[in-house]
């Protein structure tokens, strides 16, 4: 066992431990932080596999984007210090059994398959990736690239439409808000009137 | 680099996949379920890169699939969080048991 293998097993243990804590932690904010550690570990695994570009994309998109988005939504939707209710024991038992049986079946399948690994050197140069990504020849990826750009645009517009406050569609809530505002506004006016009356009374008394 | 066979990387990604599946089964909070889905997608990305590295080192298809999966996962997470925030605004809860009707 050389240094490379030791590094791989250390990274794997880190990923799996952080992932396990992310799905079992009772506090949702801690769960998000453990997810962050797990994703950083996966980026380290990409570095270990010498695909530095994917590792950089993993860190930028997942750690810098998705986890921050999840933490924002946790802050927006609930108290982060509150503990989540414990799942039922029956549910835990059957979920563990399902995961273990699935893992056992996959383990058996993978270990008996016998992959013929190639001996060629694996190098990913970013310039080569960019050329193949935008080439229109047989092995080019220009069509998925364009389709994904359309999907991102559609997702962006969809997010804005979904998360926008329904101002035109539901007129009931804005009316209530206006009513509250109109209820609030006369109250200071009445106090002003009262004050002015007392001032007048004081002036009359004096 | 050949000290670690391909099967061990696949074992790691399989274990991560089933950890995510366990979280998806036990959690009732929508944001936690989204986190479990992110774990599952990451395990699949590890698989793609490992297959590309060990079986077809002269091609780049697995790397491209990983890039596209990361892109689509980001879009999916953004849409899911928009839906969750909208649901929280109308139901005051993001528990999946409370979201029982389709139209509010």
Could you characterize the architecture of this molecule?
By secondary structure, chain A is mostly helical. Chain A folds into 3 domains: 1-118, Four Helix Bundle (Hemerythrin (Met), subunit A), CATH 1.20.120; 125-164; 172-206. Chain A has 8 helices and no strands. Chain A has helices at 3-24, 28-48, 52-77, 89-113, 126-133, 142-163, 172-184, 186-205. The radius of gyration of chain A is 30 Å and the shape is extended. Mean pLDDT of chain A is 81; it is low at 174-195. Chain B has one domain (6-91): Helix Hairpins (Orthogonal Bundle). Chain B contains 3 helices and no strands. In chain B, helix 1 runs antiparallel to helix 2 and helix 2 packs antiparallel against helix 3 (61-91). Chain B is an all-alpha fold. Classes of the chains: A mainly alpha (206), B mainly alpha (104). Chains A and B meet through helix 1, helix 2, helix 3, helix 4 and helix 5 of A and helix 1, helix 2 and helix 3 of B.
What key phrases describe this protein's structure?
heterodimer, A: 206 residues, 3 domains, 8 helices, B: 104 residues, mainly alpha, Helix Hairpins, 3 helices, 0% strand
Would you kindly provide a brief summary of this structure?
Chain A is mainly α and 206 residues long.
List the helices and strands and how they pair.
The complex is a heterodimer of chains A (206) and B (104).
Chain A: H1 3-24, H2 28-48, H3 52-77, H4 89-113, H5 126-133, H6 142-163, H7 172-184, H8 186-205
Chain B: H1 6-26, H2 30-54, H3 61-91
What's the N-to-C terminus distance of chain A? 101 Å
- The end-to-end distance of chain B, rounded to whole angstroms, is 56 Å
CATH topology of the largest domain in chain A: Four Helix Bundle (Hemerythrin (Met), subunit A)
Helix content of chain B: over 70%
**What proportion of the residues of chain A form beta strands (DSSP E)?**
under 5%
The overall average pLDDT of chain B, rounded, is: 88
């Amino acid at each position: 066992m050389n240094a490379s293998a030791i590094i791989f097993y250390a990274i794997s243990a880190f990923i799996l431990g952080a992932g396990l804590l992310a799905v079992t932690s009772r506090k949702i904010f801690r769960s998000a932080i453990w997810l962050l550690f797990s994703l950083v570990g996966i980026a380290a695994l990409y570095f270990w596999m010498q695909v530095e570009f994917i590792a950089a994309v993993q860190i930028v998109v997942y750690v810098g984007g998705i986890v921050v988005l999840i933490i924002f939504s946790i802050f927006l939707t609930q108290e982060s210090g509150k503990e989540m209710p414990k799942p039922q024991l029956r549910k835990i038992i059957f979920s563990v059994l399902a995961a273990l049986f699935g893992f056992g079946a996959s383990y058996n399948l993978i270990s008996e398959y016998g992959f013929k690994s190639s001996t060629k050197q694996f190098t990913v140069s970013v310039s080569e990736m960019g050329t193949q990504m935008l080439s229109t020849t047989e092995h080019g990826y220009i069509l998925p690239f364009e389709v994904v750009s359309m999907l991102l645009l559609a997702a962006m517009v969809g997010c804005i439409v979904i998360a926008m406050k329904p101002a035109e569609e539901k007129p009931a809530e804005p009316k209530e808000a206006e009513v509250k505002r109109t209820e609030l506004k006369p109250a200071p006016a009445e106090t002003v009137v009262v004050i002015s009356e007392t001032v007048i009374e004081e002036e009359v008394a004096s | 680099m050949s000290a670690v066979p391909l099967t061990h990387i696949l074992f790691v990604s399989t274990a991560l996949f089933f950890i995510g599946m366990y979280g998806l089964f036990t959690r009732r909070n929508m944001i936690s379920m989204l986190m479990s889905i992110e774990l599952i997608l990451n395990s699949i990305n590890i698989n793609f890169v490992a297959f590309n590295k060990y079986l077809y080192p002269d091609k780049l298809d697995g790397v491209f699939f990983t890039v596209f999966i990361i892109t689509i996962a980001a879009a999916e997470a953004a849409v899911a969080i928009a839906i969750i925030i909208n649901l929280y605004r109308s139901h005051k809860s993001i528990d999946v048991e409370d979201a029982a009707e389709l139209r509010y």
